Amino acid sequence: MPMNRPAGFWKDLPKPIFTLAPMIDVTDAAFRRVIAGLGKPDVFFTEFVSCRGLFSPGRPKLMKLLRYDENQRPIVAQVFGKEPEYFLKTAEMVQDLKFDGIDINMGCPDKNICKQSSGAALIKDPELAKEIIHATIEGAGNLPVSVKTRIGFNKRITEEWLGHLLQTEPVAVTVHLRTAKEMSKVEAHWEEMEIAAPMFKGSNTLLMGNGDLRDLDHAQEMVNKYEIDGAMLGRAIFGNPWLFDRTRKSAEIPLAERLDVMQMHADSFLEIFGDEKNFLIMRKHLREHAAGFNGAKELRVALETISNPEDVRQALDYFRLKYLKQSV
Ligand SMILES: Cc1cc2nc3c(=O)[nH]c(=O)nc-3n(C[C@H](O)[C@H](O)[C@H](O)COP(=O)(O)O)c2cc1C
User: Fold this and answer.
1) Which residue ranges have their beta carbon within 6 Å of ligand 1?
2) Closest by alpha carbon to 189, among 9, 86, 273, 181?
3) pLDDT for the residue numbered 249
4) Is 97 left (phi over 0), alpha (psi -120 to 50) or beta?
């Protein structure tokens, strides 16, 4: 019997649904602000946040993971943990924070997370996993509850595991097509979608695939091939913040615009996080942005020593002068 779970914004999305993967230390509120301005995915997720941590003295530090702008909607809070009662409390909190949905991480292969029986370790304990989904649904009220997971822990158990998840009728499941043990070291096993896709047909749960997608064309190809509802893209956004812009290809983006985006990212980072987050994290982002154009290496070297947005401005101004012959 269908349980008529709240489907929230998910039911209104045109298909295929293309989402930006949650990536800790990458897809923070500043990064998402930049992406939202350039070419928006259909759904944003926050970086994952610990349910237990949110109810510990560490809460103030974790709250910065749950910041977002209005133009990032629909925005889904991604959470992890192992205790159903903390999922329930977190879901209530996520409602209060006016998120559009809550997503449970059942895919993180990190040793520290799995040692705490969280993330992908839940694949080994389907009864607990289902209890967690039920508790989250209970706390979430009208918010839709989704799951992000993998196809097994040590070995592929796609049918068995997704069968467990489907019993709880989450609104959507995103499947990263690798086992936890495989981390990201082997190619994603997209062929497992031949098993997964028919299981979701006729269910109330949307199915999205994830793993190694290069761009929207590639994602569309996989969606068509396996007749699924959508796809999630992660690392393809590194160095290509225009990934979700359906009107332009990355190669068409003028250099001047690329440089402006770097500055905007640095400014947004400071504006959103102030000194709560180390600005030096921006060095990594800027390194990713500064690739694929004439003089990129020189710019990367210059950006390696930046410590604040003003340093970024100076490095970019110098570069503009030299490569765009633009006076500043
Ligand atoms: C730096 C980094 C951080 C990640 N953090 C998260 C996370 O917080 N939550 C999550 O569910 N997956 C996380 N992932 C996994 C991605 O969401 C995605 O499943 C994975 O990168 C495979 O997709 P891709 O090949 O399109 O990158 C992370 C991946 C990377 C590379």
Assistant:
1) 21-24, 26, 47-48, 78, 105, 107-108, 148, 176, 210-213, 233-236
2) 181
3) 86
4) alpha
Distance CA 120, CA 126 (A): 11
Q: Is the pTM of this model over 0.90?
A: yes
Distances (CA, A) of 40 to 27, 186, 210, 259: 13, 29, 18, 19
Q: Is 51 a catalytic residue?
A: no
Give residue 228's Cα distance to chain centre: 19
How would DSSP label each residue in 241-263? TTTT-SS--GGGS-HHHHHHHHH
Over the Cα atoms of the chain, what is R_g? 20
For residues 55 and 85, is the Cβ–Cβ distance under 8 A? no
Helix, strand, coil % in the chain, rounded to nearest 5 = 50, 10, 40
Length of the chain: 328
Closest C-alpha to ligand 1, atom 1: 23
- Candidate from 18, 20, 24, 50 with most ligand 1 atoms within 8 A of CB, to mutate: 24
Each residue's pLDDT tens digit, 105-163: 999 999 999 999 999 999 999 999 999 999 999 999 999 999 999 999 999 999 999 99
Cis peptide before 16 (omega within 30 of 0): yes
Confidence (pLDDT) at 328: 55
Residue 146 contacts residue 172 (beta carbons within 8 Å): yes
- Residue showing tokens 């091939």: 225
DSSP collapsed to 3 states, 104-147: EEECCCCHHHHHCCCHHHHHHCHHHHHHHHHHHHHHHCCCCEEE
Query: What average pLDDT does range 226-239 have in this prediction?
Result: 97
The rounded Å distance from CA 21 to ligand 1 centre is 6
Cα–Cα dist 275/91, whole Å: 28
